[in-house]
Please model this.
Amino acid sequence: MDVKIETSWKEALKSEFAQPYFKTLTDFVKEAYRTKTIYPPAKHVFEAFHLTPLTQVKVVILGQDPYHGANQAHGLCFSVNEGIALPPSLRNIFKVRELDVNVPYTTNGNLTAWAEQGVFLLNATLTVEASKAGSHQKKGWETFTDTVIKTISEKQENVVFILWGAYAQKKQVLIDQNKHLILQSVHPSPLSAHRGFFETKPFSDTNSYLKSKGITPIQW
Model:
């Protein structure tokens, strides 16, 4: 796992890449890719960082783990490659998008277009073993991605952090709420979405905030 990463991120995180835990994490991930089937493909582990430079982050959506099925994960949380059936959480996200901002429901689950507009689609854990959800948790990724969240909070202003579900909401402590907006609700998973997710308006609420700060809204 050579950390080839976009320049603004590389500069902001260079001290993190030098930490002993990151060397241990890198060794673990390299060995995993060598001996097992790991998702996303190695070249896409830092896809979110490549598509959304630190200096262009307007919105952060936080996921937990990459998808662990074949051809699904490509380095952006909740996103799947085009042509892959939509996972249940993404189906619900698209249903809310249609209700909220009238974007027609689609079967293309690739969210690259969001990322290219400044929506940083970050999973707390960036790799996973095939068919083993959570298999790369507590190996060091969370330490790294917590630093990423803090870095965005410190270096950027007027970012919308969208925290779906209890896991993501625990990350609030990393975010300066005097500088940024936090939108939170239950997770879009079918296990919890019925408890209010469909009544939320994350897409229009995000754009209203961005516009109020003179920032170009997202074309969802």
